[in-house]
Amino acid sequence: MTPEAEPGKNRSFGLQKCSYNLLNGISFVHDFRKLYKLRLSPRLPYTHFVSSQGTQRTFFLGGIQPMQRRTGLFVFALAAFALLSVSCGKFRGQQDSSGNASRPTIVFITDFGTANDAVAICKAVMLNIAPDARIMDITHQVTPFQIEEGARFLAAASPYYPAGTVFLAVIDPGVGTPRKAVIVKTKKGQYFVLPDNGLITPVLDRDGLDSAREITNQTWMLTPAVSSTFHGRDIFSPAAAHLAAGWDYTIVGPQVTDLVRLNPKQALIEEKGISGDVIGLDDPFGSLITDIQGDDFRALGYNVGDKVSFQLNGKTLVLPFGKTFMDVPVGDSLLYQDSRGRIGIAVNQGNYSKRFGIEPPAKVFIPRKGAALGKKN
Q1: Residue ranges in 272-351 assigned as alpha helix (H)
Q2: What is the pTM assigned to this prediction?
Q3: Which positions of the chain have pLDDT values less than 70?
Q4: At 188, phi and psi to the nearest 5?
Q5: Strand, coil or helix: what is 100?
Q6: Cis ω for the linkage preceding 255 (within 30 of 0)
Q7: With the CA atoms of 197, 202, 206 and 211 taken in that order, what torsion angle do they form, in degrees rounded to the nearest 10?
Q8: CATH of the domain at 312
Q9: What is the DSSP secondary-structure string of 150-197?
């Protein structure tokens, strides 16, 4: 059984088979030369061979064959040897037909923070496997254990990268449990190496699923003795690096047909207005990010420059709706539409979250323009 058919088998078998084929190829050419010593006849275009027993034989009878055929057997021998050499790549799992011949890119996101060595260790693992890889960071400051926040960052950044990019996402509160480690390929041709915990949900909702596989082939891991608390180092980083190095991901493990999905809350559009949530902070600025889309907000009748009465955690506020932060004086607050199309709440050149003590989760209700603002919790 080939390594493609048996994903869990160690790479050593493939390398041994490759070496065996190469040695056979070398032996073939050596024996050919030993049996028939080529000598060009002075009566060109004739070609004579001398056997190892010293008997001269004319291979091309009658001397009427064209000169090109004198090299026929050598072309055959060299072609056979080349085919045997190419077979090495097959057993290493290289190359995926969709691989990018340019410098590979790995885009990295975690909740590891920067106060320890975890990110540096993961990068070292990847560079040892794929030294030509370019490793880029989205952030390592995802709020610890917040899968929805990590999924939001991943979905926001990934559209700006080309097909063939490898994304490594490790926000993994279930590390060491039976949750799967997977590689997901989207219809855009991007690869995502991550835990099967819903991190990929918003990306798939936008780009579509091509296929997904569980990482079970130990050849793709740092070591068979995998830690129960650091799969970022032992499973996800080496798997991402092998992809970046051009390995065929179909041999990483069995197909996964049902991926875990997130079911995040969405803003609710009602007759009286929109009910939503503060879903994050735009750090380090401390602006509040809501799940209310700008188009839905405008559908309530508001325009830039309007004063908007709304409720935040049950408290009534009145803020202007601005296009830029400088639409209000420094230190003043405003509603605005952020670069992702969501409604946010900010202080011009200040930190709204710290000033007013608001952090997610928090409830937001915005009534239709002109409607009375009733009590909404």
Answers
A1: 294-298
A2: 0.72
A3: 1-101, 374-377
A4: -80, -10
A5: coil
A6: no
A7: -10
A8: 2.40.30.90
A9: HHHHHHHHGGGS-TT-EEEEE--TTTTSSPPEEEEEETTS-EEEEESS
For residue 266, what are its two tokens?
Answer: 């969405």
Q: Pairing mode, if any, of strands 333-337 and 315-322?
A: parallel
DSSP character at residue 143: P
Residues 236 and 194: beta-carbon distance below 8 Å: yes
Are residues 187 and 314 both part of a single domain? no
pLDDT for the residue 265: 83
Q: Which residue has the tokens 């997901």?
A: 184
| pLDDT tens, position by position, 261-287 | 999 889 999 999 999 999 999 989 999
Query: In the block, which residue shows the tokens 């799992």?
Result: 93
Q: Which ranges in the chain belong to alpha helices (H)? A: 11-35, 72-92, 118-129, 147-157, 201-207, 231, 237-244, 294-298, 352-356
Residues 6+ apart with CB under 8 A from 64: none
The type of residue at 213 is R
The residues with which 336 forms a beta bridge, in sequence order, are 322, 344
Domain that holds residue 299: 268-367
Closest CA to 301 of 235, 213, 358, 369: 369
Best CA proximity match to 207, nearest among 186, 226, 192: 186
- 139 assigned to some structural domain: yes
Shared domain check, 110 and 88: no
Strand partners, 108: 137, 168
> What digits encode the pLDDT tens for the residues 89-99?
443 444 444 44
Angle, nearest 10°, between helix axes 237-244 and 118-129?
A: 30
**Is residue 323, in this structure, part of any structural domain at all?**
yes
DSSP 327: G
Question: What's the CA angle centered on 117, arms 113 and 118, to 5 degrees?
Answer: 65
Say which amino acid occupies 150: G
The percentage of residues in the chain with a pLDDT greater than 90, rounded to a whole number, is 69
**Rounded-to-integer distance, Cα 346 and Cα 341, Å:** 15
Calpha distance 184→154 (Å, rounded):
13
Angstrom CA distances, 55 to 32, 38, 58, 365, stand at 16, 13, 10, 100
236 shares its domain with 109: yes
Nearest to 161, CA basis, from 207, 120, 221, 209 = 207
